[in-house]
From TrEMBL:
<keyword id="KW-0460">Magnesium</keyword>
<protein>
    <recommendedName>
        <fullName>Signal transduction histidine-protein kinase/phosphatase MprB</fullName>
        <ecNumber>2.7.13.3</ecNumber>
    </recommendedName>
</protein>
<keyword id="KW-0843">Virulence</keyword>
<dbReference type="InterPro" id="IPR050980">
    <property type="entry name" value="2C_sensor_his_kinase"/>
</dbReference>
<dbReference type="Pfam" id="PF00512">
    <property type="entry name" value="HisKA"/>
</dbReference>
<dbReference type="InterPro" id="IPR003660">
    <property type="entry name" value="HAMP_dom"/>
</dbReference>
<dbReference type="Pfam" id="PF00672">
    <property type="entry name" value="HAMP"/>
</dbReference>
<dbReference type="Pfam" id="PF02518">
    <property type="entry name" value="HATPase_c"/>
</dbReference>
<feature type="transmembrane region" description="Helical">
    <location>
        <begin position="143"/>
        <end position="162"/>
    </location>
</feature>
<keyword id="KW-0067">ATP-binding</keyword>
<dbReference type="InterPro" id="IPR004358">
    <property type="entry name" value="Sig_transdc_His_kin-like_C"/>
</dbReference>
<dbReference type="InterPro" id="IPR003594">
    <property type="entry name" value="HATPase_dom"/>
</dbReference>
<keyword id="KW-0904">Protein phosphatase</keyword>
<keyword id="KW-0808">Transferase</keyword>
<keyword id="KW-0812">Transmembrane</keyword>
<keyword id="KW-1133">Transmembrane helix</keyword>
<keyword id="KW-0597">Phosphoprotein</keyword>
Length: 432
C-alpha cells in the first residue's frame, strides 16, 4: 500500500509538471527567438538613416562594421541592383521589401529580417540580415535543463512527502493487522495504540473493545463451565455412597472405579475451564500407549458383558504424543463409546495403535452399519446422541497438530483414524 500511494503521488506529480513545464519550455523557446529577432531588427534599423541618405561607399563601410560587430550577415540591396555587405542573391522576401514592405521570414539559413528603406532618389533600398538558428535558440537548452532539474526535484519532494503520509497511514494499519493476528492466536491481552487518521483511531478503539469483550465472554464461559462441573460433584458423591453400599464387592469395586474415573474427568474439566492457555504454552504430552491401553482395558469389561469381541493391536510404548493424557483419554472414550452406542450388542471391534512415520495413529474399527462422513461435524448425530463424541476426538487431535479421519472399513463398518503428532517432532518428551 505504501508503494502504491508513492506511485500514485509520483504519477500525479509527473502529470502536473508535464502540463506546466511543457508550455513553459515552449514559451522559453519563443521568447528566445523573439529576443534574437528583435535584436537583429534593431541592428538593421540602425542602418536605415545611412542607407536612405549616404553614398554607396559610406553604406558599404557601415554595413561591414555592423556585420563584424553583430556576427550576422548583413546585406544592402540598392535600387540599381548593387549589393553591399554580404553578397547574397535576392530572395523572395527582398523582392517583396523592394516594393516598400518590411517583413520577417523563415529561410534555410535561419530567420530572415528585411527592412524597406524609402526616400532615396533612385528608389527603395532594402536592408537584409539573417538570424541563424544557433542565435535563435541561444540559452534555450540551458533553460530546459534547469526546468527538467526543477521538475525532478519537485517529483522527489512529492515522493518524500507522499511516503511520509503513506507511512502515517500504513503503520497504524500494520499494527491493526498484527494485533488482529495475535488475537486470532488467542493472545487476548493484545491491544493496539490508536494512531493515524480519525477513522483508523476509531477502528483501533473498536478492535480493543472487541478484544476486551472476548476476554469477558471467555471468562464468563469458563466460570459457567466450572460451576456446572462443580455441581456434578454432589450426584457423584451420592453415586459413590450407593456403590459402597452394594453387597457384591466386585460390583462395588467396578462401580467405584467408574465413579472415580468420572470424578477425575469432572476435576479435569474444572481445571481446564479455569486455566488460562496461551499460544506460547508447550503441549503437555503423554504416552499414547499407556493411555490407550488403560482405556481399552476399561471398555473391555463392558465389551465382555455385551458379547463383543475386542481385537487389540497396541504397539509397545512409550509412544510420546503432544496431546495431554486427559484429552487423549476423553478422545479414546468418545471413539469407543460410539462403538457401543451405534452398533448392536455382539458386534466385534478392533483397536490398533502404531507409529507411522512422524505420527502415532490410533484406529478404531467396527463391523457395524457404518456412519456418514459428515458425522464429524459438532452436534451432528443420527442416533439421538449429543453428537459431540467425534468432535471431541477431532479437537484433541488438532490441538496437538494431528487430525481425525473417518472412512468405511473393508467390512463395511466404520473406521476412525486419530492421527496424533509425536512429541519428538516438537522437541519434547513424555512427562514423568
Amino acid at each position: 500500500m505504501r508503494a502504491r500511494l508513492a506511485l500514485l503521488a509520483a504519477a500525479v506529480s509527473v502529470l502536473t509538471l508535464v502540463a506546466f513545464l511543457v508550455p513553459l519550455a515552449l514559451l522559453v523557446r519563443a521568447v528566445a527567438e523573439d529576443r534574437a529577432t528583435v535584436r537583429a531588427t534593431a541592428d538593421a534599423q540602425s542602418l536605415v538613416p545611412v542607407v536612405g541618405t549616404a553614398d554607396p561607399v559610406t553604406i558599404r563601410l557601415t554595413v561591414e562594421q555592423l556585420a563584424a560587430e553583430s556576427g550576422r550577415p548583413v546585406s544592402v540591396f540598392l535600387p540599381d541592383g548593387t549589393v553591399l555587405g554580404t553578397p547574397v542573391p535576392r530572395t523572395p522576401a527582398v523582392a517583396l521589401a523592394a516594393r516598400g514592405q518590411s517583413l520577417t521570414a523563415e529561410s534555410a539559413e535561419g530567420r530572415e529580417v528585411v527592412i524597406a528603406v524609402q526616400g532615396r532618389p533612385d528608389g527603395t533600398g532594402v536592408i537584409r540580415t539573417v538570424v541563424p538558428g544557433d542565435e535563435l535558440t541561444a540559452g534555450v537548452s540551458r533553460a530546459w535543463l534547469v526546468l527538467a532539474l526543477l521538475g525532478v526535484l519537485l517529483v522527489v519532494i512529492g515522493l518524500v512527502v507522499a511516503d511520509r503520509l503513506a507511512r502515517s497511514l500504513v503503520r497504524p494499519i500494520s499494527e491493526l493487522s498484527t494485533v488482529s493476528h495475535r488475537l486470532a492466536n488467542a493472545e487476548l491481552d493484545a491491544r493496539v495504540a490508536p494512531a493515524g487518521p480519525a477513522e483508523l483511531r476509531e477502528v483501533a478503539g473498536a478492535l480493543n473493545h472487541l478484544a476486551g469483550r472476548i476476554q469477558e465472554l471467555l471468562a464468563q464461559e469458563r466460570e459457567e463451565v466450572a460451576d456446572l462441573s462443580h455441581r456434578l460433584r454432589t450426584p457423584l458423591t451420592a453415586l459413590r455412597l450407593e456403590a459402597e453400599s452394594l453387597r457384591d464387592p466386585q460390583d462395588a469395586a467396578r462401580i467405584t472405579t467408574a465413579v472415580d474415573g468420572l470424578e477425575r474427568a469432572v476435576t479435569g474439566l474444572i481445571r481446564q475451564a479455569r486455566r488460562q492457555r496461551t499460544s506460547t504454552t508447550a503441549p503437555a504430552g503423554c504416552d499414547a500407549a499407556a493411555v490407550v491401553a488403560d482405556r481399552v482395558a476399561f471398555w473391555s469389561v463392558l465389551a465382555e458383558d455385551t458379547g463383543r469381541v475386542v481385537h487389540c493391536d497396541l504397539a509397545a510404548g512409550p509412544l510420546a504424543v503432544t496431546v495431554p493424557a486427559d484429552d487423549l483419554a476423553a478422545a479414546v472414550d468418545a471413539l469407543l463409546g460410539n462403538v457401543f452406542a451405534h452398533t448392536p450388542d455382539g458386534t466385534p471391534f478392533t483397536v490398533r495403535l502404531a507409529r507411522q512415520g512422524e505420527q502415532v495413529v490410533l484406529t478404531v474399527a467396527d463391523e457395524g452399519p457404518g456412519m456418514p462422513a459428515d458425522t464429524v461435524r459438532r452436534g451432528a448425530s443420527l442416533a439421538g446422541s449429543t453428537g459431540l463424541g467425534l468432535d471431541i476426538a477431532r479437537r484433541a487431535a488438532e490441538a496437538g497438530g494431528g487430525r481425525l479421519e473417518l472412512r468405511t472399513g473393508p467390512g463395511g463398518g466404520a473406521e476412525v483414524l486419530l492421527r496424533l503428532a509425536s512429541t519428538a517432532d516438537h522437541g519434547g518428551g513424555v512427562p514423568s
